[in-house]
Amino acid sequence: MFNLKVSDIIAAMEEWAPQELAYDWDNVGLQLGDKDAVVKNVMITLDVIEKVVDEAIANDINLIISHHPLFFQPLTEINFTEPKGKVIKKLIDHNISVYTAHTNLDIADGGVNDMLMEKLDLEVTDVLIPTKSEKLYKLSIFVPDPHLNDVKQALGKAGAGSIGNYSDCTFEARGLSSFKPLEDANPYIGEENKIQAVNETKVETIITESQLNYIIKAAEKAHPYEEMAYDLIVLERKGKVSGIGRLTVLPEVLSLKEIAEYVKDKLDVPNLRYVGDPSNKISSIAIVGGSGKGFIQDAVRRKVDLYITGDLSYHDAQDAEELGLNLIDPGHHVEEVMKESTKRYLEGYFQENLSTLNFSISNISTEPFKFIK
């Protein structure tokens, strides 16, 4: 059993929520620490504040995974008497690394917005604001006929040929290939400096950009030739669309008041605010975890009846009311749903290492607001 490093945990997180999904203004990735440090204990939190760091020290944590960045803006100084400086000093003194997945985890499939939808038992119908569409490629591989099934099986097992609700999609065209092995070649078929003709099948399939290297390696492993011949063509057609926020349509029309009570109960918040007549009928909903006040116009353009997000100001609420958009603000802190889901993902990913690797959730509430009922 080998020791896992900070870099191994980062690689797992970025399979789920690649850094390139994040907004340009965001600061995601390793915030502080050593990628080569050995990891035994990982703690997941919404925010990295001093109380959370004290908790990490008490529990011998090597790596903190946070949703909100430790550093949003570049630092001009690190003063150990200031709150941020105290946090940094404690992290360094106790060799604790910090990694952040923020807007990339909001946008990712199964990320924060999907977690909120799952918590609310709502079915996702679309993203609110598309930010990226995955590039698709057509991969064509030339295979000697006796090895055709081996290569096709390797492609399918690696995830090639996925189209909607269908897998292992391929097209085949048979033909005659020819080649001449040169002096330093080690041919599977043929002799040095002699033209060799072989009955081969061209297998075509579709793959995504994220799958590209993995699938080609899988095909090369199954292919008998020293040099596998293949074509790779970028397609105009786009793959899966990623984006911020999620849309849904309710199975039955409810009033704004009914939805507000439902959201309060499901998200287990002490209070929430709403905008609109309590009797307004709600059928379609947009949701953005965290602070989504910048997307009010997007919700209007998507013609939803209700927009659920946090950190709405007085003027945001007025603008939405004038636009005829109902709002529910359950607060920013509901994003803490990411803690349990991230723990579950990592435990599944590293299930064979759980005898030497522990994942835990911070028990410290980082919600700054208190509520009078």
Automatic annotation (TrEMBL):
InterPro entries: DUF34/NIF3 (IPR002678), DUF34/NIF3_bac (IPR017221), DUF34/NIF3_sf (IPR036069), N-reg_PII/ATP_PRibTrfase_C (IPR015867). Gene3D superfamilies: 3.30.70.120, NIF3 (NGG1p interacting factor 3)-like. One of its GO terms (cellular component) is cytoplasm. The keyword Metal-binding applies. Keywords: Metal-binding. Pfam families: DUF34_NIF3. One of its GO terms (molecular function) is metal ion binding. A divalent metal cation binds at H67, H68, D106, H332, E335. Belongs to the GTP cyclohydrolase I type 2/NIF3 family. PANTHER family: GTP CYCLOHYDROLASE 1 TYPE 2 HOMOLOG, NGG1 INTERACTING FACTOR 3. This is GTP cyclohydrolase 1 type 2 homolog.
